[in-house]
Amino acid sequence: MSRIVHVVGTGTIGEPLIGLFTDFKHYLGIDEVTFHKRTPLASDRARIGHLMKRGAHLCTDDDRIADFEDLGHKVSFGAREALERATVVIDCTPAGNDNKERLYAGLDGPRGFLAQGSEAGFGKPYARGVNDSALVAGEDRFIQIVSCNTHNITTLVKTICDDGDSGYSLERASFVCMRRANDITQVGSYVPAPYVGRHDDPKFGTHHARDANRLFQTMNLDLNLFSSAVKLNTQYMHSIWFQFLLGRDTENAEVEKRLRDNHRVAVTDKHYANEIFSFGRDHGYYGRLLSQAVVVLPTLLVRDGREVTGFCFTPQDGNSLMSSIAAALWLIEPDAESVSKRIAPLRRFVFLEI
Ligand SMILES: NC(=O)c1ccc[n+]([C@@H]2O[C@H](COP(=O)([O-])OP(=O)(O)OC[C@H]3O[C@@H](n4cnc5c(N)ncnc54)[C@H](OP(=O)(O)O)[C@@H]3O)[C@@H](O)[C@H]2O)c1
Questions:
Q1: Which end of the chain has less neighbouring CB within 10 Å, N or C?
Q2: Atom 1 (ligand 1): residue with closest C-alpha?
Q3: CATH 3.30.360.10 segments of the chain
Q4: Which fold, 148-316?
């Protein structure tokens, strides 16, 4: 049986995912990559054409096929047929929940469906390296790949606070998520001033801590997390200030060792987001860093033995790409060892140091 990955949406997250699956499909054990694009646009012709040259097959809604053909594209399948023949469907639109209700819930063919960060409630929240043990074969057919900042927050909490058999040593953790205004792929929503967000969640502050808490709940942990958010007038990267109050004593060297020992965390001595971003452009996969978090080591401070403070940067969309690929491979063959083996060629984009 052919193993077909079908990506819905060609935006900031969909486009690199289609590219990654096509470039690495032989290693990943994928036979075919198809993708759905909704809107036919001359301004998108070059990037869609390039994805197709790399081996991906374009699909669209029946009433858009002629428009895509007028742009010079070959349409391989209609939207419905593409969904029915897919082994795994990866929704990369801000309408995953809506698509689940309208389209995916009634499909028997695919082994599973993934949606992205904004689509809470789509299925079990997942971040690679944090709650892999929570995925249940045969049960979790719908999975939500959490947002890039949730990847960062949950990876930090696990790395610094997970004491194995003794559980998580964490009294509380606070985060200030300093979000970049818009991605360099996007042309809207740029205001050249910081924008401070409301604390619209009375328990968690903003959705970032709530989403992280929800992810840990899949492992029966209810952690005391709080977040605030501010949007900054930069396009480079999200940055996060974090402060943990641990339930035991620690020191800088121990925190640094834990961060260095987790190969999904990159550490750095660089203080500027543009330098991290630039490293991604030079060494990442088409500019993406597939690490979960980039922690700035000189910013780490342990106070009074138990309070850990620092700054980190979020490899936005890179960490979600890694989890999307891992979850798709797991849906195809729910065996952790096999997923690790197939994903190994991507490890060169997961950095220990930046
Ligand atoms: N941006 C990031 O760094 C990032 C990181 C992690 C997770 N995410 C998550 O990824 C998801 C997508 O975000 P994005 O930034 O990639 O969005 P985006 O750049 O705005 O792209 C959205 C894509 O979805 C398509 N689309 C929208 N509604 C659709 C529908 N109803 N049916 C079919 N296609 C539809 C659009 O198609 P057309 O343009 O062809 O109309 C476009 O290709 C969100 O859940 C977001 O939270 C984003």
A1: N
A2: 12
A3: 148-316
A4: Dihydrodipicolinate Reductase; domain 2 (3.30.360)
Global confidence as pTM: 0.96
CA distances from 248 to 37, 245, 307, 321 (A): 51, 9, 9, 34
Whether 320 lines ligand 1, by a CB cut-off of 6 Å, is yes
Choose the CATH number for 4-145+319-343 among 3.40.50.11540, 3.40.50.720, 1.10.10.10, 3.30.2010.10. 3.40.50.720
Nearest to 196 by CA among 234, 231, 238, 239: 231
CB 285 within 8 Å of CB 15: no
Confirm or reject: Cβ of 292 under 6 Å from ligand 1. Answer: no
Whether the CB of 148 sits within 6 Å of ligand 1: yes
User: Which atom of ligand 1 approaches the CA of 145 most closely?
Assistant: 7
83 touches 5 (CB < 8 A): no
Query: Using a 6 Å cutoff on CB, does residue 103 contact ligand 1?
Result: no
Distance 144 CA to ligand 1 centre (A): 14
Evaluate: CB of 154 within 6 angstroms of ligand 1.
no
CATH 3.40.50.720 domain range(s) in the chain: 4-145+319-343
